[in-house]
Specification:
Blueprint lengths: L3 E3 L5 E3 L7 E2 L10 E3 L4 E3 L4 E2 L2 E5 L13 E5 L14 H4 L9 E2 L2 H10 L4 E4 L8 H13 L3 E6 L5 H9 L3 E5 L5 H8 L4 H13 L3 E8 L7 H14 L6 E5 L14 H14 L4 E3 L5 H4 L1 E2 L6 E6 L2 E5 L1 E2 L2 E2 L11
Parallel strand pairs: 8-10, 10-11, 11-12, 12-13, 13-14, 14-15
Antiparallel strand pairs: 1-2, 2-3, 4-5, 6-9, 7-8, 16-17, 17-18, 19-20
Helix pairs in contact: 2-3, 7-8
């Protein structure tokens, strides 16, 4: 494995993510799927997945990356984040033996995508950072077959593996889970700064199309001050054209005592982001036509009218607004 340091006494340090786990022989990392086997980090889930599904690309969510196309989605087990509110905890925190899962090689995934006319393949459901090698090998074959690659990730990755990872990824939705170290430390058992570093790198130094998602949990990361701070950081570091999705939390895992996010909370965040100057703002799994629609950044007319994941109107030609010919940011 490339991203590891061989230490004394049979120990190995995994350097994929900022946890930099130091593992004794036969010990697994925080993610439970990267293990020290004979002083080499072994990915226990390589070639195994929790199932494949064909989704609309809007479900990732990606609203500016080949709208209305199909994506073949898959994930494995484990995660390098410790989110107490995880919406996919039955996958990310599962201790199931990977060998009890579906076995699908990178080539088989590509063949399935081709046979089902999928424009892209998505590494999702759990974070592809921890099944790095499986994702990269699949992405290489996708590129050889003119299939786009999509990552849904927390962005909690070290600098060098991030450079390799985003070299093979065409589009990513990165979860910016909140905008304070207090939130990340308490509720994600992680650090905010490495995520911000990843987002800045991916947006400013790669050709990967990036969209962001923040899932709002009332009383935890939804204050006006925190949303204002997030929007200001986006504007100062990424510009005003990176799409941001605010999505609703539903009680899961260790946050079952919390209430579901109201649509009013999402609308409040939506309005703050729009008034801050961010051009493309959406609400996610609770939405209406207004907050699902893409508006031209120049003339303000609706250019992709959606109801959730369903496209109702498409007022663009060759990526340009049909009303004023302004280019819409993204891949169309």
């Amino acid at each position: 494995m490339k991203y590891q340091n061989i230490l004394q006494n049979g120990k190995v340090q995994c350097t994929i993510c900022p946890r930099n786990c130091i593992l004794s022989e036969e010990q697994e990392g925080f993610c439970h799927v990267r293990k020290n086997v004979n002083q080499n980090i072994k990915l226990l889930t390589y070639g195994y997945n929790t199932g494949l599904a064909i989704d609309p690309i809007e479900k990732k969510p990606l609203y500016h990356f080949y709208p209305n196309s199909s994506v073949l989605s898959f994930g494995t087990l484990g995660c390098n984040m410790g989110c107490l509110f995880c919406q996919n905890w039955n996958i990310s925190k599962s201790k199931v033996n990977p060998q009890d899962l579906n076995k699908t090689s990178p080539q088989e995934i590509v063949d399935i995508a081709l046979n089902n006319n999928c424009k892209s393949v998505a590494f999702t459901y759990n974070d592809p950072i921890i099944f790095f090698e499986y994702a990269i090998d699949t992405a290489i074959l996708c590129k050889e077959n003119n299939i786009k690659t999509v990552a849904v990730t927390s962005g909690f990755i070290n600098e060098n593996p991030a450079k390799e990872f985003f070299n093979y990824i065409d589009s990513a939705n990165i979860d910016l889970k909140g905008f304070s170290q207090r939130f990340y430390g308490k509720n994600c058992l992680a650090k905010l700064q490495p995520v911000l570093d990843t987002i800045k790198y991916a947006v400013n130094e790669t050709n990967c199309h990036i969209e962001l998602t923040t899932m709002l949990i009332e009383g935890e990361n939804d204050s006006d001050d925190e949303i204002h701070a997030e929007c200001n950081w986006i504007l100062e570091n990424l510009g005003d054209c990176v799409p941001i999705h605010f999505s609703a939390f539903f009680p899961h895992f260790k946050f079952k005592d919390k209430k579901s996010t109201s649509f009013e909370t999402l609308i409040r965040a939506y309005n703050i982001a729009k008034s801050s100057g961010i051009k493309y703002v959406y609400t996610g799994n609770l939405s209406n036509i207004q907050t699902s629609t893409t508006y031209c950044k120049n003339c303000g007319n609706p250019i992709i009218v959606r109801n959730g994941y369903q496209i109702l109107e498409y007022n663009m030609e060759h990526g340009e607004c049909k009303y004023c010919s302004a280019i819409c940011d993204g891949e169309f």
